Amino acid sequence: MEQQPESVFTAGLSARVELTVSDSDTAQAVGSGDVPVLGTPRALALAEAATVAATASRMPPGMTTVGLRVELDHRAPTPIGRTVVAQARLAKVDGRRLLFEVTVTDGDTTVAEGRVERVLVDRHRFVERATQSS
């Protein structure tokens, strides 16, 4: 019998990931601006990596999560050489939907914060559908 997400994932699961900002992480490099600071897409990718890490140890075999919705406020610039920490906390489980609260910080400074919603899917079926529709 397949486990329901509610029994596998519980509110409060969390994880953190770190990144030392390099030239390839800047707005200039990722095409989201022309300044040499952490680009918003890179901050978001780091926050999403934290959400994936938060569920990794409890992920049922053959399943994965995919991004569904993102809300992110990028509040402060981070120059090259600084280390940012993304933290994700699972705030709510609604069926197969997982809602995370995320923050990206540089020391005591909140660089970005928001919410990431992911949905639990069968990995094989998801990839199969994605490749058939192209």
UniProtKB/TrEMBL annotation:
Coiled coil: none annotated. Residues 21-123 form the Fluoroacetyl-CoA-specific thioesterase-like domain. This is Thioesterase family protein. It comes from the Bacteria. InterPro entries: FlK, FlK-like_dom, HotDog_dom_sf.
